[in-house]
Amino acid sequence: MTQSPVSTRFPTLARAAFPQSRLLTNVLLVLGGALLVALLAQVEVPLYPVPITLQTLGVLLVGAALGARRGALSLASYLALGAVGLPVFAGSSAGLAKLAGPTGGYLLSYVLAAGLVGWLVQRYGLDRRVGGTALAMLAASVVIYSLGLPWLSVVTGLKGTSLLHAGLIPFLIGDALKLGLAALLLPGVWRLLRR
User: Fold this and answer.
1) Which cellular components does GO assign to this protein (predicted)?
2) Which of 68, 93, 143, 193 is the most exposed place for a label (fewest CB within 10 A)?
3) CB burial class (10 A; 0-12, 13-18, 19+) of residue 32?
């Protein structure tokens, strides 16, 4: 059996913990990742139009732990669960209107961000060291803001500094803390697995 180009260099945490790739295991990992993001989305500081949550921490961890394909699929599943009405988004919200609202660009970017982190982990093993993990998380955060801010601008009409004050600046300190936490957590888990 040949491996895909994505997985040729470094295994993910999920692959290391569950080396046998069975369908049920993959489904449980994907749904578990979606559930983790849903739970972290409920840790919220309500701001308008974009709340502060731990949701992005979940996105980054899921992408790193599951890899590019399973991570992206996990976040796509998360969005699908919310779209059909399960209260998985921040503030226990759900529905297509949430995906079309001010936070829709951020939410949709999660699939790409998790996929990117997973690809960086599988290709370069960036989750093995603090600096590498931070770099992967920073790259994914750029993806999230690159889609979230323009969407927020279109939906709300905000531009320039008003847009940055609504959709970027209030999140920078929290994002730095989440990035630091992930950068410490992932290499620590690898050290435990090696023992």
Assistant:
1) plasma membrane
2) 193
3) middle
A 10 A CB-CB count for 84 gives 11
Residue type, 14: A
Q: What is the pLDDT of residue 8?
A: 53
Q: Where do the domains of the chain lie?
A: 19-194
Q: What three-state secondary structure class fits 53?
A: strand
Task: State the CB neighbour count (10 A cutoff) for residue 136.
Answer: 27
CA 55, CA 42: separation in Å to the nearest integer?
A: 8
pLDDT for residue 2: 43
Tokens at 25, concatenated: 């295991």
Alpha-carbon separation of residue 48 from 52, 102, 151, 172 (angstroms): 9, 9, 15, 16
Tokens 């959709």: give the residue: 167
pLDDT averaged per 10 residues, the chain (length 195): 55 88 93 98 93 94 96 98 97 96 98 97 93 94 98 97 96 94 91 82
In terms of phi and psi (left: phi > 0; alpha: psi -120 to 50; beta: otherwise), the region of 160 is: left
Residue 17 has a pLDDT of 87
For residues 171-182, b (16+ Cβ closer than 10 Å) or e, as one string? Answer: beeebeebbeeb
The span from the CA of 40 to the CA of 17, in Å, is 23
Backbone torsions φ then ψ of 45, nearest 5 degrees: -110, 105
Record the pTM.
0.92
